[in-house]
Queue: 4 jobs
Job 1
Amino acid sequence: MAVDFEKLKVLREKSGVSFAMCKKALIESDNDIEKAKVLLIKWGAEKMTEKSGRTTSQGGIFSYVHHNKKIASFVEILCETDFVSGNPEFQKTGAEFAMQLASMPATTVDEFMNQEYVRDPKKKIGDLFKEMAIKFGENIKISRILRWSLGE
């Protein structure tokens, strides 16, 4: 079966996953973008499980201070390589996670991962996290979170 290259381009732009994986997903889904997205998520979850034992010694600490200067948050995200930790998409997602934590308090990583994403309530933070891990193909972890509120 031939791949619809316009759909391949759209899937690649939306998912950030490699062209090869997008092409494989489109072939297996008969060029159905929604079905291909589901396959990419499934394959990504399988890869994440395989990679979960790998050492995560790189990453970054992301912070957000609310405009009123009364709330601040920190999120530590670990990954395997400095190549990934320096990637602009990794940096952007880390900043989004810090903003999320300032907007919606959480005291544990599990609680944080189960929150609805403030920019898209159809997604949970855990979904965004999985998307990030799939894009980069590395073991990625949110290891610590901290939220401060003035006077607490």
Job 2
Amino acid sequence: MNVKDLKPRAAVDEIILTIVSKAEPREFATEKASGKVCNCAGKDDTGEVKLTLWNEQIDAVNEGDKIKIQNGWVTEFRGEKQLGTGRNGTIEVIH
């Protein structure tokens, strides 16, 4: 799958991206959970997408890394598509 094919509220079987930027992680706490979240941007030959990293994913991924997301999920926030691993997805740094 490519960035240009991503649709809000849709599953992503597999996508390979290069991380082009990574913001500072921030902590969150709700009634159900607490942890850390970090926004990144990833790109491929067809475009760029915002990427959300959670907890241990934050330390595993750095700017310039090539990553593979499997079983991911696309959401929409303030009119922008955001990609994440969702509940069952995985993220892996590849070479």
Job 3
Amino acid sequence: MKKLKITFNAPVVLGFALLSFAVLLLGIVTHGASTQTFFTTYRSDLRSPLTYLRFFTYTLGHSGWEHFIGNMSYILLLGPALEEKYGSAKLVVVILVTALITGIVNSMFFPTVALCGASGIVFAFIVMTSFTGFKGGEIPLTFILVAIIFIGQQIIDGVFINDNISNTAHIVGGIVGAAIGYIWNKK
């Protein structure tokens, strides 16, 4: 019988999860100061280099264990399949593009809202996963259902529930995931 061994099967996903965990621990040790300074994005002075850094790093920050566990559960569930299908470099592109677009949209249209966490990336992954069986000229029913269920829920929550969750980040992440999933799978 073969020996079982643990493999580092999805380096981008695992690296992202480990970095997020380290950032969470740093936030706990600094009583949130590091999270607020480096891992939360909000409208700030465009002359500050931190403004541009935070357009990406906010995805590593989380407000607490529950927030972290919720996001990492989805990322660790969906990410490895996406990384296997598209490759590590392309998954890095998805993460960076989602972070940047969501950060810019938030800064431009919601100046009083601070973003922290990877939920935009989670929604990009959710929608991209529904495209894995996509063939040219066809729209997968799974994509339509995911769009209705996940994105629709975020629109409803954004309009009717004030729960301090940025539904915009979820919606933008879903749109980015849909666009990338479509472009990469239409061939």
Job 4
Amino acid sequence: MEPKMDIRTAWERYVANVPSDENAINRVAFHLLRRGEAPSISEVAGILDLTIKKCQELLEAMSAKGSVTVEEDIVTGAGGLSVIPTSHQINLKDVRLYCWCALDAIGIPAALAEDAEITTVDGFRGDQIHLRFEAGHLIEAPPSLYLQLAPPDQARPLCGGT
């Protein structure tokens, strides 16, 4: 069994093992998704100065790993952010989006240091939970809020987008 580590360390280790071109696609697609519209593969390719074919190949590999979601020639999710509805709704700068899991729902506004409103569902009882962030800080949450993380090999099937 691996020793426990904090979320930041786990993220840094994950990113360090992802090829740079995949990291670049993930970052670009994530920021384009923040508009509330899914970017086309050609739009992502153009920003990164990749051929459409190369971008498609990379996105196919990334999709197989669960780091993006793609429908036809549209990137519908990246970095935990999605335009496809899940049980984790997030409003960032008045744009309604969705997150793949609860960790994404709290991690995205914290990492971006932005205001956000989250509506999610208690995984045990099914109750709706409302959270509010200001400048990336959680300022409104139920008093008994906690987050339980599944091991990485078990987490992917539990997440909404991957």
